[in-house]
Every structure is written in C-alpha cells, then in structure tokens.
Write a structure and sequence with these properties.
- This protein has helices at about 1-10, 15-55.
- By secondary structure, the chain is mainly α.
- The termini are far apart.
- The protein contains 2 helices and no strands.
Amino acid sequence: MSKLFSRFLKDESGATAIEYGLIAALISVAIIAGAGTLGNTLSLTFNKISTQMNTSSAGVGTK
C-alpha cells in the first residue's frame, strides 16, 4: 500500500496536464483580447473612411 502511495506522489502527469491547460487558457484569453481590440480598430477605420467618402460624394452632381 505504501508503494502505491509513494508512486502516486511521484506521478506528475496530472500536474503537467493542468499546467498545459492553464497555458492554453491564458493563450486563448490573449487571442480573444487581441481580436477584440483589432476588431474595434478596424471598425473605427472603416467608419472613418465611409464618412469621408460620403462627405466627398455629397457635392457630386449638384452643378
């Protein structure tokens, strides 16, 4: 019985799996945060371009 308990204490495969899971979770959070920031930046850029195009095309054909 003590041999089984000793082998259980030396087994680190569960700890390694948990570490890999935590690393994967942190990477996922970083990717989600980066994608959110990039999405907001792209949205602002396209809105700015759209506004400029609408402003410059408003005077076309009024002569």
